[in-house]
Amino acid sequence: MKKLVVLSGAGISAESGISTFRDSGGLWDQYRIEDVATPEAWQRNPELVIDFYNQRRAQLEHCKPNKAHIGLVALEKFYEVHIVTQNVDNFHERAGSSNVLHLHGELTKVCNSDKSQVIDIGYRNTTSEEKINGTPMRPFIVWFGEAVLAMDKAIQITQMADIFVVIGTSLNVYPAAGLLDYVKKDCPIYLIDPNEVITKKEVLFINKGASEGVSELINLLL
Ligand code: OAD
Q1: In CATH, what number is assigned to the domain containing residue 76?
Q2: Are 3 and 183 within 8 A, CB to CB?
């Protein structure tokens, strides 16, 4: 089977009711990154950080995967599909995708300070008092300024792609956006987004929202 690799971003979950980050009215219009998504924010005001992720987790519990997530599962009948996602939601897994790699962590998990221990907590709220083996328990999220530990694996997956698909990401955040540089020369790159996305790569642009775009992708590929 040919290998189809997807790089997904917040836009794929927009139709599930979760805001993107950089669209107008998006999460980074409502919060400052430096208040909720950096190690310094965690040191300064852990309650604010915990509250931000508690809200995200609670919202996730009440939303569900959309047709785009589900369409990518359908492609598994014809392709070996690997999803590399920047999203911290669990929609790809809940839709039934077999291979999902999270670059920026997962909302339903927490960890200790050096991320050596990761625990699944489902959708429950956490508090800043909780500990893992005596060290503060924190969201299992890659904050700005932290290493993206899954990057090496993501590069390996990208390098073996026969078809590469980018869905719903502004390609603003590195190193994730740099994955496109590892796509093989002869590998077609499809990009699904209702808005223009700036990239120096030559892409086959499907100028649609994620659900419609994935359905068009399926028509093109099958
Ligand atoms: P952005 O908010 O930067 O970009 C969202 C993209 O989704 C934009 O290109 C939109 O045009 C597109 N979009 C909007 N509605 C869509 C729809 N219905 N269907 C398809 N696409 C749609 O989100 P990301 O690129 O994912 O990291 O952001 C990358 C990282 O920045 C996130 O993982 C997060 C954030 O800060 C951390 O918090 C560490």
Answers
A1: 3.40.50.1220
A2: no
